[in-house]
TrEMBL record, chain A:
Cofactor: [4Fe-4S] cluster; Mo-bis(molybdopterin guanine dinucleotide)
Name recorded for this polypeptide: Formate dehydrogenase alpha subunit
Upper lineage: Bacteria, Pseudomonadati, Pseudomonadota, Alphaproteobacteria, Rhodobacterales
UniProt domain 4Fe-4S His(Cys)3-ligated-type: residue ranges: 98-137
GO cellular component assignments: membrane; oxidoreductase complex
Protein source organism: Rhodovulum kholense
GO biological process, one term: formate metabolic process
The 4Fe-4S Mo/W bis-MGD-type domain, residue ranges: 248-304
Occurrences of domain 2Fe-2S ferredoxin-type (ranges): 20-98
From TrEMBL, chain B:
Native species: Rhodovulum kholense
Annotated protein name in UniProt: Formate dehydrogenase delta subunit
Pfam families tied to this protein: FdsD
Taxonomy, superkingdom: Bacteria
Family matches, as InterPro entries: Formate_DH_dsu
């Protein structure tokens, strides 16, 4: 509903793509539209609005309300314009006395079963039923209420047709009394979201909407909000609108949760954010969103947010609130003192994948220009650094190859080590739409993720491999493709390095790498591997989408290269519908990598050894840039324990909770003399900090995020920063306290500096983003409007490079003491360390982390559903409650890591990817046993955290 | 960084290039370490390579000779 107050034109039916056009006349105006376009849409394109209730342009029309009827010369009757395709030479009349009379009759019937409490209705002024009553000139309702759905009592008795409101969902309310049975919600749930949670019960007048057999909260509903968006009345309504009234202005911005990067309209009333609504013209999301972006923004106004800078001499003291000036002077002085004692390289920083490109650029500039070293890293270290290494080696750039629209042209999709319905929900909806149209799906994952079998979607193959055997599985697929002659030799000859291909082909053909030979290792039946490989190689356009289940292994980089090898060998690179697509976790993890957040790379992925690239920055910044790679996060922590690394500026990350081997991280942090945490909340890392700089939320600043498709989307300030300063201003103030003399007045000036120094961003400016909405880098003279698909004419590195991918088992082995393999992941309603989502009503869906264990493994250990269990590894132990499920295979257990109480990373090991030190989150040998409750470590930790979070009352 | 961990990391890199002949592998290991390791890590590795029985594989030890010397060690 709701496109009326803040209009985002609704054309009534979806756009059609066709090379052929047709021309018709509507109310005397000539209109030319693509063939297949409805008369309703054609009229809307000519600026003529035909009354409608059951049609909206995000859904296929069903022609049920009959309000949109028109008269067409030479045709009998009054066809529904939403289901009538426009044809050449048609002459359409949308307003005639006959139509007016018929429409009034339709409306009269609707209104006779609808309460007339418009003045006090939450959708007042934002209701299409109301609008249509006005549009058709309805003046009276001749029926006295007979059988109806809205009166609670009738003839002195309870009305059997009346249903009470469903308020179970924390974000929206379903009020059946106001339902006009247009089924827009049902269709939205099917067509847009792909969850099929809603059904129609009964027929005709008796037809009602139902969320399965239970209320919304306990149904299959994933709270994406698509039905609420589609509902033309107050039947499905956001609670915030019920509570505060309709918003009065809208600003388009970008979701700050995941790497899909949905464009959302922030709808405001004064400086209160009432609701987030997916923006139809957003090129990543095309008008859809998930529960996090749409509803879970309450954290931005949560009372836990820290509003004042705080400092303390040592971490056993309570925090002291101080002015910005005092905090910055204290910090600058400490950092300089450390450098004077222990050398230039003794301090560093961590950029945030949650912050904007501009902010990230400034943090790395602070480190390179002001700190004078390359000790900068980012949380991508713990997620997609292997993508950087792997794709750069094989293709020449770490960039994902496609845009999200590309999935619409895919015929076969291989999803490996990713769980899109939970991790990248809007992409998952777009993928499911394509699968319902007939594309084939292969899932390679130890766990039976939702995509494997869901409503109207079923994977052709689920390769349930043992955690840690990705390389063996992918190489076995390559073995099949090469030995069965399924390679695309034309592509390989033209586009790839011949010698490397020959070596690789000989390697993968070795008999001991065949599916049969590796079956015992991977646990995947050889026959399934063969069939999946054949399907991938011969099923048409084949696209690979992968996530952290690929990268977070000791062979993460090797796995990425194995994926790249497969795509090259089958020619699935360089056009829509194919490609290698890393699904990036955080909203701006792509951007933070692009902006030079790695200790060996300047912005634009140029190595610090590259004198020319260094020269660009040296001339502009007037300093010498070190040509030595800096420390990576795990190395920083190691060096801190050694005493050679003593100061760390952490912007918007919670490394203590998110990084593996918590005890090791804690020891590293505790050894430092100046830890500066710049964040919204006193996060877990802040327990070890000396300085806390309060951060600003994405609603409080201007900037850009770059999503997983390399798309730069604008983030727009919709309210003033709660602390007075946006994050980029804080970094600037810290730099200036250390003598930098920066004077940016607006983030657009930072973007101009990025464009001036970084070739792949040369064409980017805020003006361009205003004009185009968004662009995908590279964006420069060669591609002024950006690059949707990479490697179209040739690989960035010249010839694609096949790389030999020997399987090396991880040293994290199961044995008698630790017989099970733990793998980790996340779920839809919570986000990573949960700092945001735990502070919203999303906890209704996920109040705690649970351990998934196969019923066989549970039985042998005497574990029942919901029991507290002790999860122990060589690194440590924790306790949580168990859920019995056959989603995981025997021998494998699984948990999420959203809650600090669980501290799943106490358990994860110190092993990491050979090339990038990306930690091996996805494989840990563990034992599980019944326990009584939280472990000693959890209790000690909670006590330490409580002590470390004390804040002294402000001195008057 | 404990010496064990450094040696482990260097050996892991060596394993990744196991398919190459000795000289190429050593060059590849050294190039990788030059590109990604900060000077203090390289300095430690070099000192590990000088003493026997520090857990370094033969190739990792061989690569050490080719590694860029850190300026300030
Ligand atoms: S919120 Fe989304 S998943 Fe739930 S019923 Fe509505 S459309 Fe379906
Ligand atoms: S709930 Fe809304 S969208 Fe669904 S049928 Fe009723 S009025 Fe239509
Ligand atoms: S899919 Fe990702 S970007 Fe889109 S609304 Fe959900 S969390 Fe935000
Ligand atoms: S809008 Fe066409 S029949 Fe309802």
């Amino acid at each position: 509903m709701k496109d009326f107050i803040l209009p985002d034109a609704d054309f009534g039916t979806p756009a059609r793509r066709s090379d052929k056009t047709v021309t018709l006349t509507i109310d005397g105006m000539d209109v030319t539209v693509p063939e297949g376009t409805s008369v309703m849409r054609a009229a809307a394109m000519a600026g003529i609005e035909i009354p409608k209730l059951c049609a909206t342009d995000s859904l296929e029309p069903i022609g049920s309300c009959r309000l949109c009827m028109v008269e067409i010369e030479g045709r009998r009757g009054t066809p529904a314009s939403c289901t009538t395709p426009a044809a050449d030479g048609m002459e359409v009349h949308t307003q005639t006395p006959k139509l007016a009379k018929l429409r009034r009759g339709v409306m009269e019937l609707y209104i006779s079963d609808h309460p007339l409490d418009c003045l006090t209705c939450a959708a007042n002024g934002d209701c299409q039923l109301q609008d249509m009553a006005g549009a058709v000139g309805l003046r009276e309702v001749r029926y006295t209420p007979g059988a109806n759905h809205f009166q609670t009592r009738q003839n002195g008795e309870a009305n059997p047709r009346f249903e009470a409101k469903d308020t179970s969902n924390p974000y929206f309310t379903y009020d059946p009394a106001k339902c006009i049975a247009c089924f827009r919600c049902v269709r939205a749930c099917e067509e847009v979201q792909g969850t099929f949670a809603l059904t129609v019960e009964g027929r005709g007048f008796e037809a009602r909407i139902a969320s399965g057999t239970s209320d919304f909260l306990n149904s299959d509903c994933v709270s994406c909000g698509a039905c609420v968006q589609a509902c033309p009345t107050a039947t499905l309504q956001e609670n915030a609108v019920i509570e505060h009234g309709t918003p009065d202005r809208a600003i388009v911005t970008t979701c700050a949760y995941c790497g899909v990067g949905c464009s959302l309209r922030a709808e405001m009333k004064g400086d209160r954010l009432i609701r987030m609504v997916p923006w139809k013209d957003g090129k990543a999301n095309r008008g859809h969103s998930c529960v996090k972006g749409r509803f879970a923004f309450g954290y931005a106004a949560h009372p836990d947010r820290i509003r004042n800078p705080m400092i303390r001499e040592t971490i056993d003291q309570p925090w002291r609130e101080v002015s910005w000036d005092e905090a910055l002077a204290f910090t600058a002085q400490r950092l300089r003192a450390i450098q004077a004692e222990s050398g230039t390289g003794a301090i560093g920083g961590i950029t945030s994948s949650r912050c904007t490109n501009e902010e990230t650029f400034l943090v790395q500039k602070l480190i390179r220009q002001v700190f004078g070293n390359n000790n900068v890293d980012t949380c991508a270290r713990v997620c997609h650094s292997p993508t950087g290494y792997g794709l750069k080696t094989t293709f020449g750039t770490s960039a994902g190859t496609q845009d999200f629209d590309s999935v619409e042209a895919a015929d076969v999709v291989l999803v490996i080590g990713a769980n899109p319905t939970d991790g990248h929900p809007v992409f998952a909806s777009r993928l499911k739409k394509r699968l319902r149209q007939g594309a084939k799906l292969i899932v390679a994952d130890p766990r039976r993720i939702d995509l494997v079998k869901g409503p109207h979607v079923q994977a052709a193959h689920h390769l349930a491999l043992r955690p840690g055997t990705n390389v063996a599985l992918l190489t076995a697929m390559a073995h099949v493709i090469v030995t069965e002659g399924l390679t695309d030799s034309a592509f390989i000859t033209e586009r790839c390095d011949a010698e490397a291909f020959a070596d690789w082909a000989a390697f993968v053909s070795e008999e001991h790498l065949s599916p049969e030979a590796t079956e015992a290792l991977t646990g995947v039946p050889a026959d399934q591997v063969r069939q999946a490989a054949r399907l991938y190689a011969t099923g048409g356009n084949a696209a690979i989408y992968y996530g952290l289940g690929v990268t977070e292994h000791s062979q993460g980089s090797t796995t990425v290269m194995a994926i790249a090898n497969l795509a090259m060998a089958t020619g699935n690179i360089g056009r829509p519908g194919v490609g290698v697509n890393p699904l990036r976790g955080q909203n701006n993890v792509q951007g933070s990598c692009d902006m030079g957040s790695f200790p060996h790379e300047l912005p634009g992925y140029r190595h610090v050894h590259d004198a020319e690239a260094r020269g660009v920055f040296e001339r502009l910044w007037n300093v010498t840039i070190s040509d030595e790679p800096g420390l990576r996060i795990p190395n920083m922590l190691d060096a801190a324990v050694d005493g050679s690394f003593r100061g760390l500026y952490v912007q918007g990350e919670d490394i203590l909770q998110s990084d593996p081997d918590t005890k090791h991280v804690a020891a590293g942090l505790a050894a430092m003399d100046c830890v500066i945490v710049h964040d919204l909340f006193l996060n877990e890392t802040a327990n070890y900090a000396h300085v806390f700089l309060p951060g600003s939320s994405f609603l409080e600043k201007d900037g850009t995020f770059t999503n997983a498709e390399r798309r730069l989307n604008r983030v727009r300030r919709v309210m003033a920063p709660m602390t007075g300063l946006a994050d980029w201003e804080v970094t600037m103030a810290l730099a200036n306290a250390m003598g930098a003399g920066w004077d940016y007045a607006h983030p657009s000036e930072i973007m101009d500096e990025i464009a001036a120094t970084t070739p792949s961003f040369a064409g980017v400016s805020y003006d361009l983003l205003e004009r185009e909405g968004s662009v995908q880098w590279p964006c420069n003279a060669a591609a002024p409007l950006g690059t949707p698909v990479m490697h179209e004419a040739g690989f960035v590195r010249g010839k694609g490079l096949f790389v030999i991918t020997d399987y090396v088992p991880t040293d994290e082995r199961t044995g008698p003491r630790f017989p099970l393999l733990l793998t980790t992941g996340r779920i839809l309603s919570q986000y990573n360390v949960g700092a945001q989502t735990r502070r919203t009503a999303n906890t209704a869906w996920h109040g705690e982390d649970r351990l998934e264990i196969h019923p066989h493994d549970a039985e042998t250990r005497g574990i029942a559903e919901g029991d507290w269990v002790r999860l122990a590894s060589r690194s440590g132990e924790t306790s949580l409650r168990a859920t019995l499920t056959d989603r995981v295979s025997p021998g494998v257990v699984y948990t999420t890591f959203h809650h600090p109480e669980t501290q799943a990373n106490v358990v994860t090991s110190d092993y990491s990817d050979w090339a990038t030190n990306c930690p091996e989150y996805k494989v840990t040998a563990v034992q599980v046993a019944l326990s009584n409750g939280p472990s000693d470590w959890q209790e000690d930790y909670a006590a330490q955290a409580r002590a470390a979070r004390r804040i002294l009352p402000a001195a008057e | 960084m404990t010496p064990d961990k450094l040696a482990y990391m260097a050996n892991q890199i060596a394993t990744a290039f196991a398919r190459l002949p000795d000289d190429e592998a050593e060059a590849a290991i050294a190039a990788h370490i030059d590109q990604f390791w900060d000077p203090r890590m390289r300095a430690r590795l070099l000192s590990l390579a000088e003493s026997p029985n520090t857990g370094l594989s033969d190739r990792a030890r061989g690569a050490a000779a080719l590694i860029r010397r850190p300026e300030t060690a």
